[in-house]
Amino acid sequence: MNDCIFCKIINKDIPASIIYEDQEFLVFEDIKPIDKVHLLIIPKIHIESLIACNETNQEMLGKMLLLGGKLANQLGLKGYRTMINSGAEGGQEVFHIHFHVYGGSDTLVKI
Ligand code: 5GP
Ligand code: ZN
Fold first, then answer.
1. Is residue 6 helix, strand or coil?
2. Å from CA of 102 to ligand 2 middle
3. Which of 38, 96, 98, 100 is flagged as catalytic?
4. The whole model's pTM is what?
5. Is the dihedral of CA 17, 42, 48, 65 positive or negative?
6. How far is the CA of 82 from the centre of ligand 1 (A)?
7. 100 among known catalytic residues
8. pLDDT tens per residue across span 84-104
9. Which of 18, 30, 67, 106 could potentially form a cystine with 38 if both were Cys, beta carbons 3.0 to 4.6 Å apart?
10. Pocket flag, ligand 1, residue 16 (CB < 6 Å)
């Protein structure tokens, strides 16, 4: 049995605030937002992280990045940040690959 929390959200076994869904991707609000808008974009296939990706995932990764920009734009963000934490040492806590897309606050803390 797959114990992945994001797979459970994909299967609607646990609720999430879903912003967008198609055959390949699901986009929902982060449960602990760090900005006014904070989305998580995930592929519906379970891939652990960017570390597990290779050339065969190139198209999927490109689509995710463009989808994030499109949704940020639709939500009225003039600018936004994207973040991919990869591996425990890279700050990843949920091991189903995801893009964070966030923005909307007036003050930007530079990192
Ligand atoms: P990571 O640190 O792995 O890059 O980010 C995982 C993100 O998933 C965190 O920002 C966390 O708030 C979010 N998250 C963890 N569990 C859930 C959940 O059950 N629902 C939603 N919507 N977000 C979650
Ligand atoms: Zn998963």
1. helix
2. 21
3. 98
4. 0.95
5. negative
6. 14
7. no
8. 999 999 999 999 999 999 999
9. 30
10. yes
How much distance in Å is there from the Cα of 74 to the middle of ligand 2?
A: 26
- The full set of domains in the chain, from first to last, is 5-103 (3.30.428.10)
- List, as own/partner pairs, every contact residues 3-11 make where C-beta atoms lie below 8 angstroms and the sequence separation is at least 24, other chains included: 4/46, 4/94, 4/95, 4/96, 5/94, 5/96, 6/40, 6/42, 6/46, 6/94, 6/96, 6/98, 7/46, 7/96, 9/42, 10/42, 10/44
Select from 19, 31, 38, 47 the residue to mutate for testing ligand 1; criterion: most ligand atoms less than 8 Å from CB.
Answer: 31
Give yes or no for residue 60 having a pLDDT over 70: yes
Pocket flag, ligand 1, residue 108 (CB < 6 Å): no
